[in-house]
Amino acid sequence: MRVGRERQREELRDWVRGGARGSGGHLIVEGEPGSGRTALVREALAEAAALGSRVRYGAADAFTAELPLRAALDCLHPEGPGRAAVVALLREAREAAQPGGALLAAMDLLVRGVEEWCAPRRPLLLVLDDLHWADPASLLLWQRLARAVDRLPLLLAATRRPLPRRPEVEQLCAELGAAPRGRTLRLEPLTGAESAELLRGMLGAAPGPRLREAAGQAGGNPRLLRDLTTQWSRFIEITGVAGDDGGSDAAEAAVVAVVAELTLPEQELPEPPASLPRGIGYLSRPAYTTLRHAALLGPAFTPRELALVQARPAREVLAELEEPLLAGLLEDTGERLRFRQPALRRALYAELPRAARAALHQDAARALAEAGHDPERTAEQLLAGGALDRWAVHWLADSAQSLIAAAPGAAAELLERAVVQADCGDRDALEGSLADAALMLRRPESVELLTALHGRATDPGHRAALAFKLVSALMVQGDMARSLAVTEDALAEQVPSSTLRLRLEACRVLALADLHCPAQARTLAVPVVAEAARLGDPLCGAEAHHAMAFALFHLGRGRESLRHVAEGIACARRSPEANDMRLLLLANQAEAHLRFDEPETVAAALQEARELALSTRSTGRLVVTEARLAEFHYRLGDWDAALTGVARAQGLPVSDGWLPVVVHGLRALVLGHRDEREAAQAELALLPPDAFAVPAARRYSGHVLLARALLAERAGRPADAVRELLPALADSPDEAGAYERPWVLSEIVRVALDSGDTATARAAAAACGRAAAALPEYPGPALALLRCRGLFAQDPQLLAQALERAERGGWPLVLGHAWEDLAVARAWHGDLAAARAALTRAVAAYEDLGARWDTARADARLRSLGVRRGSRSARRRPASGWEALTPAELKVAQLVAQGRSNPEIAGALFLSTRTVQTHVSHILAKLQVRSRAAVAAQAAARRSAPEPVRGPGAEPVRGPGP
């Protein structure tokens, strides 16, 4: 199976068809080894033969490059009397004192033979593979034949790779490419999507995320990807079955995708084939050796780093890197050179003996450190170099804090080694640094380390500082009771620093609020905020406002809490020392505005947070930001971006207890909505048994509960679906603050009613009422309560009100559910036409999302009530006008109407500029206008138009407003 070459294959077909009609021409196919050059020209040979053309094929090779006309002769006369006549002339040339005459005669004989083949106007296709190895005489003959394509029905096709570079080959290719009847086809590396398609063809199943990621080892080289896949075959498992499982009616239109996935993480796969480096044997020996040394420096490196490690002038190293760059083995990323095929780097690295590798890594670490390079690069070499020597331990002690800021994971691993090897005098300092690294990585061992260090400390200032770190570590692990106890003990002792004392008091407020004493926490926060203002310290101000905001949030005073969050961010922006607190406040600001259905503010906060976390290398805060971004994209309906976000969060070296719940829960929920059941079940199976042991994890349990219930309902087990959602019914303090709880309660009402469990539905509606009463400021609980009551009574009027609220919120999946609920209620009341219209709107929302299961469920629920949409292939969305816009296009249109530029819209919605441009093009076409100003004018006209009068349950008119 060939993928990623569709354009080149079609261009080649057209060229061959033109030749079959008598049009001559010449073609060069360029590409690296394994790119498919030979397969492409063989396809052309078959096409030409099928069209009645005469075809000839030959291939040059490195062993015959010095034999005159050997390549051309193998192409034109692989055997027979024609070959014998030319060989006789070549033998005469070899034996003659002046061989030129006989050699020219041999060329003339070959040219006449080609002209005779073309004489009856029968088209001829000649293919010379591996032109880069062809002997000079064959190149000259090829040039002569190329000059005859204007008058003969002759097609010449040759293939070449970037190396070796011979002047005569370069000159010939340049001349042929520039000629009127010449063209060049370049076979670029496969993209990620094309690699996935190649895997699908090889395995008969769509590759899963882990296999798609591992496919990047091939760097887009088709042959290498096939070789690696063959090597990994025993670690690839194919799951899923196509077709209906015979379950509920909703399953009629559903198909479970067959998925091929690795059973091992990528880092545990076997080393690439040892024969792989032999495929780059065309490199000169110096270039090969330099490339192998570069492999020691990791996937990417700078020429200066390589020069330092080899102790050679940079100009010599650059000269030897020219060949790998020309061959496409390395690519220039701007700041570094990068191995394009990671598998090749690993194979080159494995060629070096293990002992030699360790010594070279240690030498490289010292060279980089002494040259003043980033400590992260030195640490990478020490990690790969085995046991630390005395120099490495001393370097680590001196560089620990800067290394922790840049690469906390590497710092922690090196510090663990150093603590074991260090003398008693150095151990405390190294353990303190290890505790800092563990705290930044949010690892549980930070608590144990800091507890021991705090117990040994005697200086009051040092004890207070360690107490603050210990409280932070305990809060990260969710142990608020112990953090409060440590805080109280620390405040009872002498705290020499007034700023540190205030920060400990802010910690006490946070702990009390989280331990369900928000009123007491707020009372204590008032003097903390006042004292912070008096001190004028930015960090203290940020922490004081954060504490007050947290207490107010737990009191249900969301808007007031947000004001303190904003003040805290303003304080934090005044000092780089407060960057960590600024990141925390930005994440809280984004979450709060998400609860208020204010996506633009959410986007701005998350964009600022992500940029700051990346620039300051704050791994712990970056994982929170990535998780918030993923949730935001899920709500916006950009599910691919949501999956990318959780993958980024999962890839960060942190140990937050809530992270697996967010990652696997959100991923399983998206896959479940897409009706990829096997993959969704696999995600849920990855959750550890104690996934909800941490209170923070329980607050994010909604996605896991919804995913489990979705899969049970999809399997035709609604009673089990209800049971999966029952944890949300608990009115415990932890559950009361659970993310998305009111919406989960509304899902309990829907599924319970469908399964005939009226008692559970009534209990869920009552619980939702209590949740909405406790959170009166937020629109989400009020919408969920309307939905609960509308579903329980099957009241179209209540559900129409819920729909209006869903439209104001603008979250696509919620909007689809609201339309579906309204369709069912209308059908119950016998209004089948209105039910069909609502169903059509629900399915339109689901199809925009790719929510195949939701489409199937909605169709099944309405079909049981006598409502069908008709042909499923026909979309009901109008072709033009505001009604024709998808939810994503509508959001972009709203921002266009506000005068935003494409980059501004991309930043606000976390899209690429190209995606925004595509949306804008579709908007202009659907609205039948030619400018952004016209979009703004139409939007203003619709906002000023009178609201149409609606009856109960009537469909609201969709417009450009927020």
Description:
With 962 residues, the protein is mainly α. It contains 47 helices and eleven strands. The protein has a five-stranded parallel sheet, sandwiched between helices. The C terminus is likely disordered.
Question: Helicity, in percent?
Answer: 55-70%
Q: Major sheet: size, sense and barrel closure?
A: 5 strands, parallel
Spans where pLDDT lies below 50 across 5 or more residues = 241-256, 947-962
**Global morphology:** globular
Average of the residue pLDDT scores: 87
The first-to-last residue Cα distance is 48 Å
Strand content: under 5%
Spatially, the strands of the biggest sheet line up as 2-3-4-1-5
Number of helices: 47
Query: Using DSSP, what is the number of strands?
Result: 11
Q: How large is the radius of gyration? A: 34 Å
What is the topological layout?
Layout (H helix, E strand, L loop, with lengths): L5 H15 L4 E6 L6 H14 L3 E6 L10 H7 L4 H15 L4 H19 L5 E6 L6 H11 L7 E7 L6 H12 L3 E5 L5 H12 L2 E2 L1 H7 L6 H10 L4 E4 L19 E4 L22 H11 L4 E2 L1 H8 L3 H13 L3 E3 L4 E3 L2 H10 L2 H17 L4 H10 L5 H17 L1 H14 L2 H17 L4 H12 L3 H17 L3 H13 L5 H17 L3 H18 L2 H17 L3 H15 L6 H17 L3 H18 L2 H18 L2 H12 L8 H15 L3 H9 L9 H5 L2 H13 L3 H8 L7 H4 L4 H14 L3 H17 L4 H15 L2 H14 L2 H17 L3 H18 L2 H12 L23 H11 L4 H8 L3 H15 L4 H13 L18
Parallel strand pairs: 1-4, 1-5, 2-3, 3-4, 6-8
Antiparallel strand pairs: 7-8, 9-11, 10-11
Helix pairs in contact: 1-2, 3-6, 4-5, 5-6, 6-7, 8-10, 11-13, 11-14, 12-13, 12-15, 15-16, 16-17, 16-18, 17-18, 17-19, 18-19, 19-20, 20-21, 21-22, 21-23, 22-23, 23-24, 23-25, 24-25, 25-26, 26-27, 27-28, 27-29, 28-29, 29-30, 29-31, 30-31, 31-32, 31-34, 32-34, 34-35, 34-37, 35-37, 37-38, 37-39, ...
